[in-house]
Design brief:
With 462 residues, the chain is an alpha+beta fold. The chain has ten helices and 25 strands. It has helices at 4-14, 72-83, 117-132, 196-200, 204-219, 240-247, 252-255, 317-323, 356-361, 412-417, and strands at 21-37, 40-58, 61-67, 98-100, 138-156, 160-178, 183-188, 191-192, 222-223, 225-233, 277-280, 301-306, 309-310, 331-332, 341-342, 346-349, 365-377, 383-395, 398-404, 407-411, 419-422, 427-435, 438-446, 449-457, 460-461. The strands form four sheets. Strands 1, 2, 3, 4, 5, 6, 7 and 8 form an eight-stranded mixed sheet that branches. A six-stranded mixed sheet has the order 13-12-11-16-23-22, covered by helices on one side. It has a five-stranded mixed beta barrel with strand order 10-17-18-20-24. Helix 1 (4-14) packs parallel to helix 2 and helix 3 (117-132) runs parallel beside helix 5 (204-219). The termini are far apart.
């Protein structure tokens, strides 16, 4: 993408005023985004974005700039401009760049550049038709398609020089049901680190049918009672609660500044023995996976909590300095426009020994959250608030009628302590995670779990 000799000159210029570390991140991204609504293509965007991010460290000072001028003159100008923010430090040494060969762990069969636009649209229209034909009360369906191919080139003053190509594809389906007085929506958005073969092989009857079924089911649901209940949270996207309320608290972005309830607690029990919490960027073809992170380090399987004991954090290169430890292959950024930091990839609770049937049968009076919706969390405290897209009452060990308007309210660290059953049906769900280094594709996952007590905000008294 850019000649090695030019990159070396840029790294040198970045250290010219006393920085001790410099890095260049080069990105060339191709994106196809299509939206279908009311059975018509409402938006179709294909684009390319090319740019370069330059980063400099001086002790605990971190300077970042980016440019879309990739001429040698433009890159040197950007590097020297960033270097002006650093004065008087001990200048680092530039090590000769050593090209690393990335061994891809994700097989790509159909690259986006080789896929006809008509093939993408055909899948979208099929998904739309399945959702619309599910029930006469489905009055609207919306389908969004995304694929992207991202080439990156990463080099730093320590001699790292590595390139990689990343491919992701996703299909998002939303159905809206109405009975003339009320409206409810259902959503499903599978994604993968894969080419068009992933889209082509999707079971559209399942994904589009589920989006429509959720909307119709919630249209018929009673109002959810409020109070404190045992809550069964199903697998796949159910893991979003612990992603938000615990996962962010295990990122060095928060831990290094002691802005996390998990800071300085390695070796402590933070969950019951049945809970093991993992972030694994190496799972083949999963939505949140990477061959290398955005600092050029190989991704890895990081066990964060093992049998209830806090074992580690997700750490990027800069925060590793603050914490006096090593990076964990967990540095990510949305694009060259963002300074990277520690972020999750595929984060999940490991499977336990209980079956879903056993978990439900063991629950006398509670709430079953089949699909989770959006929510918010305070990373410093872990306090969260999450909507439930599809919920049911559980009575005497059986799932009863559906209820709508359910909200789960609590504290991540406390909720983690109250997990009393873990299922054996691990599943992953694709999503987007926003934080200081932008919006990123991540998987959240878990088997079905039960939390002994969560405050449920509903629309009527229990």
């Amino acid at each position: 993408m850019i000649k090695q000799s030019i990159i070396e000159n840029v790294l040198e210029a970045a250290l010219s005023t006393g920085g001790d570390f410099s890095e260049v991140f080069i990105e060339d991204r191709f994106v196809n985004s299509i939206g279908l609504q009311d059975q018509k293509i409402e938006q179709s965007i294909s684009g390319r974005d090319f740019g370069v991010g330059i980063r400099i460290f001086s002790g605990f000072q971190n300077v970042y700039t980016y440019t879309t001028d990739f001429s040698e003159e433009g890159l040197l100008k950007a590097a020297k401009r960033a270097a002006l923010a650093i004065q008087g430090g001990k200048r680092g040494t530039i090590h000769p760049l050593q090209k690393e060969i990335v061994q891809p762990i994700h097989q790509i069969q159909q690259w986006p550049k080789d896929v006809a636009h008509t093939a993408r649209v055909a899948v979208m229209k099929e998904a739309d038709a399945i959702a619309r034909n599910y029930d006469p009360r489905i009055h609207q369906a919306e389908v969004r398609y995304l694929d992207e191919m991202q080439h990156v080139q990463i080099a730093n003053s320590e001699g790292k020089f590595v390139e990689d190509t990343r491919v992701r594809s996703r299909l998002a389906i939303q159905a809206t049901a109405s009975d003339g007085t009320a409206m409810q929506t259902g959503f499903y958005g599978p994604g993968a680190y894969a080419g068009f073969e992933f889209i082509e092989n999707l079971d559209l009857n399942h994904y589009a049918g589920e989006a429509a079924r959720i909307a119709v089911t919630m249209l018929e649901a009673d109002e959810c009672p409020s109070g404190k209940f045992p809550v069964i949270i199903d697998n796949e996207f159910g893991g979003v609660i612990f992603h938000e309320a615990c996962g962010h608290g295990l990122e060095a972005t928060a831990v290094a500044k002691n802005n996390s309830v998990f800071a300085n607690r390695i070796g402590e029990r933070v969950a019951p023995e049945i809970v093991t919490y993992i972030d694994d960027g190496t799972i083949p073809n999963e939505w949140g996976s990477l061959n290398i992170d955005d600092e050029g380090e190989k991704t890895r399987k990081n066990i964060l909590i093992e049998n209830g004991i806090l074992k580690g954090y997700l750490i990027d290169k800069f925060n590793a300095r603050r914490m006096k430890t090593e990076a964990t292959g967990s540095s990510r950024r949305q694009s060259y426009r963002f300074n990277p930091t520690s972020r999750m990839t595929n984060t999940y609770i490991a499977p336990g020994k209980s079956t879903p049937e056993e978990i439900i049968a063991a629950t006398e009076n509670g709430i079953y959250a089949k699909y989770m919706g959006g929510g918010s969390v305070n990373p410093a405290t872990g306090d969260y608030n999450f909507a439930v897209s599809e919920a049911y009452l559980v009575k005497d060990g059986k799932i009863e009628r559906p209820v709508r308007g359910a909200t789960l309210i609590g504290n991540g660290a406390q909720t983690l302590q109250k997990v009393d059953m873990v299922g054996n049906n691990l599943g992953h769900g694709a999503g987007m995670c926003g934080s200081v280094s932008g919006s990123l594709p991540v998987n959240v996952g878990q088997p079905m779990i039960r939390v002994s007590e969560i405050t449920v905000g509903g629309t009527k008294e229990a």
